[in-house]
Design brief:
It is a single chain. The chain has helices at residues 2-39, 45-50, 60-68. The protein contains three helices and no strands. Helix content is 60%, strand content 0%. The chain has 88 residues and is an all-alpha fold. It has one domain (2-71).
C-alpha cells in the first residue's frame, strides 16, 4: 500500500511539474508575441514611396510642354446641346 501511495505521489509531482512548465512556456510565448506586436513597425508601401527622396533636377522639356498647354482650345470640342425636355 505504501508503494502505491508513493507511486501516486510521484505521478502527481510529475504532472504538477509538467503543468507548471507548460504554464510558464505559454506565458513566455504570449509575452514574446505581445512584445513583437508592440515593437513591430510596418510601413505601408504607399508611405514608403511617398518618403523617397525627390530628384532635385527639373526636366525643362516637361516644363516647356506645360507652358504651351496654358491655354485651352475650345474650337476642338463639340458643342453640347441639352436634351429636348418638352412634353407633347
Amino acid at each position: 500500500m505504501k508503494e502505491d501511495k508513493k507511486e501516486e505521489r510521484k505521478i502527481e509531482k510529475d504532472l504538477f511539474f509538467i503543468a507548471v512548465l507548460t504554464t510558464v512556456a505559454v506565458a513566455v510565448w504570449i509575452a514574446l508575441d505581445v512584445h513583437q506586436a508592440l515593437t513591430k513597425t510596418e510601413i505601408p508601401p504607399i508611405v514608403k514611396k511617398q518618403t523617397e527622396p525627390l530628384d532635385p533636377k527639373l526636366d525643362v522639356s516637361i516644363l516647356d510642354q506645360l507652358e504651351e498647354k496654358k491655354t485651352y482650345d475650345f474650337s476642338a470640342t463639340e458643342t453640347l446641346t441639352p436634351p429636348n425636355t418638352e412634353q407633347p
